[in-house]
Amino acid sequence: MGRMLIQIGGHTDNLPHSAASGSLFASNWELSAARAVKVVHYCESALGIDPKRMSALGYAEHQTTASNITPKGRARNRRVAIVVVQP
Description:
Helices cover 29% and strands 20% of the residues. By secondary structure, it is α+β, with helices and mostly antiparallel strands. The chain has a single domain (5-81), classed as CATH 3.30.1330.60.
C-alpha cells in the first residue's frame, strides 16, 4: 500500500443516544467516533498498520446509505467505512 492514507469513518442510524437513557455515549457523534477509533486500534495492533497513516472520523447519522425509516435501513446505516486515499 506504500504511503497511502487510510480514513476510517464511523456511522450510526438516527436513533438518539444519551447518558440519561443509559447509553455509554452522549450522542451519535460519540458513538460513531468510538466505532472508528476501535477499528484504528485493531488495524494498528492486529494488522501492524502505522497509526500515522490512519485517521478516525465520526459522521453520526449524517451520511446514510439507507433510509432510517425501517429497522433494516437503520441496520445498514450502523457501519464503519474504510477509505484508502492517495496523499
